[in-house]
Amino acid sequence: MKNLIIFLTKYNSYFVFVFLEVICFYLIINYNNKQKEIFLYSSNQISGFVLDNYSQILQYTELKSENQRLKEENAQIIKNFFNQKYLEIPNYTPNDSVMKGINVISANICNKSIDKRNNRMTIDIGYKKGVHEGMGVIGDKGIVGVVTFVNKNYSSILPLNNTLSRTSVIIKNRGYFGLLKWEPYDYTHTTLTTIPKHAQIAVGDSIITSGFSTIFPRGIYIGKIEKIKYSNSSMYYDISVKLINNLALIENVYLIERPNKNEIFEIEKVENSDYEPIQ
Amino acid sequence: MNQYSKIFRRFLLLAIIQVLLLKRIDINIGDEVYAKLFIYPLFVLLFPVNINRSLSIFLAFLMGIILDMFYDSPGLHSSALTFIAMIRRPVLLWLEPVDGYKTDNLTTIQTMGFNWYLAYSSIITFICLFVYFMAEAFAFVYISDVLIKTILSFIISEILIMLYMIILNPK
């Protein structure tokens, strides 16, 4: 003990140095986007490899229930195939150019967190199998998140239970559209914002994707309204949405991509630039 | 106590020069290559020789955090400043004159001579800039870019630091 104290006092400056540098790097990684991406990319390479092997072992223990779920899911897909529609989209006749040729890739989740402010998921396929950034991720029932970083064999997902996650949604059969955000730390619920107070909505209404973004096509199911709060200080409702997917249990996901994404990007770039036509 | 009030005043002066003046100057050469003007290594350069090492590291970190607040780059300046505060002792030992340093002595041009000061400030400024640009790039693959930026910024910053020492002549 005495030696330890002598050691600590003798080299105290080194400890101060290491401590402060660790703080610095913590700040760099957490609050600077570029460095964060590099850090995530390189740590994904390493941790993805380890965790993938680990989860391969663990998957054996869940084979039975997983099998059952996959069977149900397959049945659903086959049913939808015969009905010529993708997932359940009642009351919506898809526009050909929007719905035709949607690319679907199946993937397994090999790592995820649910107890943090900014949760992440890692899946076991990368650009080798045709994944790229900005693809939407859906589970068997509804949406899960968006692909943000891709490397050769692994990809990182920004799931719904991340405070950075923003999803454009509409309330089915009512047409009001809003933004879905997440507030820590309840992964079964998200918050729907920007629904104005004059809107006629009710508990139990379904929330589906709006199709306004380039990531998800219109009409993918997300969840149901569970609670509507009415605060006097805000112009908007404060709506709590119960997610249909249990993000803690989900294992298999599907990556989807809209076929004419680049055209949307192009036209919106013209919109947003300072270009002013002469009339 | 007088020593610490001097350090505090220098802290304010250098932070103000860096944030209000030098932050606005951008020197761009080509698309990716740019130089930055740093005067704040002087804060560490001008610590008294016999200052407590842990205290100097902590003060440097504090300065870095203040600068980072204005630069919107949490951690970058503070990691560079903390690092040079750490390596200042070895550099001083390496450059130690034959008769040693006088205790309580500031290392300035007047007390140590122009050549000594140029060597001392060059080493520390260069390392500071290198750590800064390395932390900014955050990957070893950009090492050539980092070196070019470091060298360009180093030349300008070193001139600035020597000018500061000659004109303001801190005691």
Question: How would you describe what is shown here?
Answer:
The complex is a heterodimer of chains A (279) and B (171). Chain A has six helices and twelve strands. Chain A is an alpha+beta fold and 279 residues long. By secondary structure, chain B is mainly α. In chain B, 68% of the residues lie in helices and 4% in strands. A two-stranded antiparallel sheet of chain B has the order 1-2. In chain B, helix 1 (2-21) runs parallel beside helix 3 and helix 6 (114-137) runs antiparallel to helix 7 (143-168). Chain B is globular, with a radius of gyration of 16 Å. The two termini of chain B are 15 Å apart. The model of chain B has no long low-confidence stretch (mean pLDDT 86). Classes of the chains: A alpha+beta (279), B mainly alpha (171).
Strand content of chain B: under 5%
**Secondary-structure element order of chain A, as H and E?**
HHHHHEEEEEEEEEEEEH
**Secondary structure tally, helices of chain B:** 7
Strand order of the largest sheet of chain B: 1-2
Question: Biggest interface: chains and residue counts?
Answer: A-B, 21 and 21 residues
- Helix proportion of residues of chain B, in percent? 55-70%
- State mean pLDDT of chain A (0 to 100 scale): 80
**How many strands appear in the DSSP assignment of chain B?**
2
Indicate the overall shape of chain A.
Answer: globular
Strand order in space, largest sheet of chain A = 1-2-5-4-3-12
Mean pLDDT of chain B: 86
First CA to last CA of chain B: what distance?
15 Å
Helicity level of chain A = 25-40%
Main beta sheet of chain B: 2 strands, antiparallel
Radius of gyration of chain A: 23 Å
Global shape of chain B = globular
Order of helices and strands of chain B: HEEHHHHHH
Oligomer: heterodimer
What structural category arises from helix and sheet content of chain A? alpha+beta
Beta fraction of the residues of chain A?
15-25%
